[in-house]
């Protein structure tokens, strides 16, 4: 039997203005490392960058998603992280996308999706990624309180190491 798909959806605020995040290559570096790490852990998803903040979906085996999310929690390129959804999912929304990217304009999307996504760059692929990201946002139980997400994460980890203050 295959392992359940575990999904975490969160949003956060960028630590620096868009000129810094894009101009100094923070977003490109983040994507490159995320794609390598996610591919190795069988994790898929999408990162949306608005210029002010992030929206991200991570999905895959719990054993892959959980350590990735733990590293995201301490990443200084963002702050004020709020979990929107943390649950087991029936299926992946982003199969084959080690980490898709949606940014502030199509040129940025094309440039940052050029590598690591297989058929990325084709209009139908971009449209599919956008549609899937919107569906996750619409379908997520946004009213889930932070403490509920924290308890779910603690329960999933089963270790004191992952307990949040």
TrEMBL record:
<protein>
    <recommendedName>
        <fullName>BLUF domain-containing protein</fullName>
    </recommendedName>
</protein>
<dbReference type="Pfam" id="PF04940">
    <property type="entry name" value="BLUF"/>
</dbReference>
<dbReference type="InterPro" id="IPR036046">
    <property type="entry name" value="Acylphosphatase-like_dom_sf"/>
</dbReference>
<feature type="domain" description="BLUF">
    <location>
        <begin position="5"/>
        <end position="100"/>
    </location>
</feature>
<dbReference type="GO" id="GO:0071949">
    <property type="term" value="F:FAD binding"/>
</dbReference>
<dbReference type="InterPro" id="IPR007024">
    <property type="entry name" value="BLUF_domain"/>
</dbReference>
<dbReference type="GO" id="GO:0009882">
    <property type="term" value="F:blue light photoreceptor activity"/>
</dbReference>
